[in-house]
Write a structure and sequence with these properties.
Elements: E1 2-8, E2 12-18, E3 24-31, H1 34-41, E4 48-54, H2 60-68, E5 73-76, H3 92-105, E6 110-111, H4 116-150, H5 156-161, H6 164-168, H7 174-205, H8 209-214, H9 224-232, H10 241-247, E7 255-257, E8 260-263, H11 272-288, H12 290-302, H13 305-326, H14 332-335
Parallel strand pairs: 1-4, 4-5
Antiparallel strand pairs: 1-2, 2-3, 5-6, 7-8
Helix pairs in contact: 4-7, 4-9, 9-11, 10-13, 11-12, 11-13, 12-13
């Protein structure tokens, strides 16, 4: 059998094919053109056990194209791949060979390749988060302007309600007014785009039973339910609830030896969007749900607020796993038993 590793870059990629003894049969750099890559792999098509592509920011076109051409494709998880630190020479050739080598040994850490349709909606939810972050930056900038000029800042809701006429009526320098108008105009434009994106996301997920079930969880509603649903993907890819909680970054990461803590593990291994969603859900749940509040207060009394919030997020993550796995709504008695 033959094994292929592809080291992908922004405008080109290095294609390596090895045999069962790690002997290099092909090593060639080509431009990011699907037809050229398929042509390189054509002589090895029948014996090719799989193709490994590293999960860089631009892998969609390559992985989708290879899969449509009939290749067995694996998406390598770069945060879980560790190479020997003592190497003196390392480059694209070594990286591509190493990917193929891990595939041959059967120890390649992989990520999930979600279906195109699900992936597109998931990316739209991520786009919403990006727009919200940008809106927050401009709201804070407007608040800071008023704080510098008046000694106290206006609230975020007041910034959202500002218009040009109100700004013209403020006792501010003309240049300061111009800067404030720029921030307010961008906030209004972002509000329109966020509303449009949220409407589209809701149209895509509202009919799914999993979406309605997730809405039964305290702290999870119209905004967080699509994020959790889309970032999770098929729940079957997680064998146990602990695998899902780890993927959502809701578990501790540390190294211990002889009962002593020796350091931390890979904190970035997991899904940062799920981690954010469950922490947000925990902050909302402890404010409006009695069971969640009692659990939070018990944990906070023993540790601190940050640890208690993370513990509550872990509880909600585990609850969501069973909700998606069993198709049953949230059960508070089971979650906080």
């Amino acid at each position: 059998m033959k094994y292929c590793g592809i080291d992908l870059h922004s405008n080109n990629c290095l294609v390596v094919v090895i045999d069962g003894h790690d002997k290099v049969l092909l090593e060639q750099r080509v431009q990011n053109d699907l037809a050229s890559i398929l042509k390189l792999l054509c002589p090895y098509r029948r014996e090719l056990a799989g193709v490994v592509v590293e999960a860089t920011y631009n892998w969609y076109w390559l992985v989708d194209g290879l899969m449509e051409a009939g290749h067995e494709v694996k998406l390598a998880n770069p945060s879980a791949i560790k190479k020997y630190d003592g190497l003196k020479h390392r480059g694209d050739q070594a990286d591509a060979r190493y990917l193929a080598h891990l595939l041959r040994l059967g120890i390649l850490p992989t990520g999930a390749v979600l279906p195109k349709e699900l992936r597109a909606t998931r990316d739209l939810a991520r786009k919403r988060m990006q727009l919200v972050r940008n809106r927050t930056l401009h709201i804070l900038a407007a608040e800071n302007i008023t704080a510098r000029e008046y000694g106290s800042r206006i609230s975020s809701n007041q910034v959202k309600q500002l218009d040009s006429e109100q700004i013209d009526g403020m006792a501010l320098n003309d240049d300061v007014k111009c800067a404030l108008k720029a921030n307010v105009a961008i906030v209004k434009a972002l509000n329109e785009q966020i509303e449009m994106v949220e409407k589209r996301i809701h149209e895509q997920v509202a009919s799914r039973s999993e979406y309605r079930l997730l809405n039964s969880v305290p702290g999870i509603g119209r905004t967080l339910a699509p994020v959790i649903l889309l970032e999770t993907g098929p729940i079957e890819r997680f064998k146990e609830v602990g695998n899902f909680a780890s993927y959502a970054r809701c578990v501790n990461s540390e190294y211990t030896s002889n009962g002593k803590k020796k350091g931390k593990g890979n904190m970035k291994n997991g899904n940062k969007y799920l981690a954010w969603a469950f922490v947000e859900a925990a902050n909302i749940a402890r404010r409006y749900d009695d069971q969640a509040r009692r659990f939070y207060e018990r944990k906070k009394a023993k540790t601190n607020g940050v640890v208690a919030t993370k513990a509550l997020a872990h509880k909600l993550a585990r609850a969501c796993y069973y909700i998606l796995k069993e198709g049953k709504p949230f059960d508070g008695a089971r979650c906080f038993a």
